[in-house]
Design brief:
Blueprint lengths: L3 H4 L17 E2 H5 L5 H15 L8 H13 L2 E2 L2 H19 L16 H16 L8 H16 L3 H17 L13 H17 L2
Antiparallel strand pairs: 1-2
């Protein structure tokens, strides 16, 4: 289970907020858009326990280390900060598609219906994905893969295919298919890249 003592105090959303496409945002501005910390923790835990094992979309240890730090930042300055927020939302959306689950009753955790929250997370992820400037990133490849699978699961294969094409385009931009050109990475980060490479390779066949 997530170590909530390490990950920090829950944040309560105040309201939705329309932001422009400038990248620099205060912590309050970004988190006002998000579901509550309690809801997000619940959905991420459900994803890790019940969904991630199917394709290993993320490496839990690598993700959770950044996840805890992301919530505690005083502001969000760069593209990686916003992209990681997008990844959180994509994981929540996909997690919601796999609810209800008898092992994860939503009562007391989710303040909105599953359908309403799924639409909210998807819309916000698309909004965050429009932020510029943005450099190519392995995080965005993960986001687009999750978007593709979410669309296919929802019965929208055309939109899923477009998202998969975008993931492949982003993967080429970071030279994901040429391991000898990768920057120096920790073992876990390199393993994450290899997993994503094989996901794209298998789905593109």
């Amino acid at each position: 289970m997530l170590n909530r003592a390490q990950l920090g105090i829950y944040e309560k959303p105040i309201s939705t907020l329309t932001l422009g496409c400038s990248m620099q945002r205060t912590r309050a501005e970004v988190l006002k858009l998000f579901p509550s910390r309690q809801e997000v923790d619940f959905l991420i835990q459900h994803f890790l326990d019940k969904v991630n094992w199917t394709y290993d979309y993320i490496t839990p240890d690598v993700f959770l280390e950044t996840y805890g730090a992301w919530w505690m930042q005083s502001s969000y300055y760069g593209s990686d900060d916003i992209l990681f927020g997008t990844l959180i939302l994509r994981l929540c959306t996909f997690s919601l598609q796999h609810l209800p689950n008898p092992d994860y009753p939503t009562e007391g955790f989710l303040e909105e219906s599953i359908d309403v929250m799924e639409a909210r997370c998807d819309e916000l992820a698309c909004h965050f994905d429009s932020y510029r400037p943005r450099k190519p990133s392995i995080i965005r490849v993960q986001c687009m893969i999750l978007m593709a699978v979410t669309q296919v699961t929802a019965g929208n294969p055309k939109d899923g295919y477009q998202a998969l094409l975008e993931a492949t385009k982003e993967a080429h931009a970071i030279e994901l298919f040429s391991e000898d050109r990768w920057p120096t990475l920790h073992d876990a980060e390199a393993e994450t890249r290899r997993k994503i490479f094989w996901l794209l390779f298998n789905w593109d066949k």
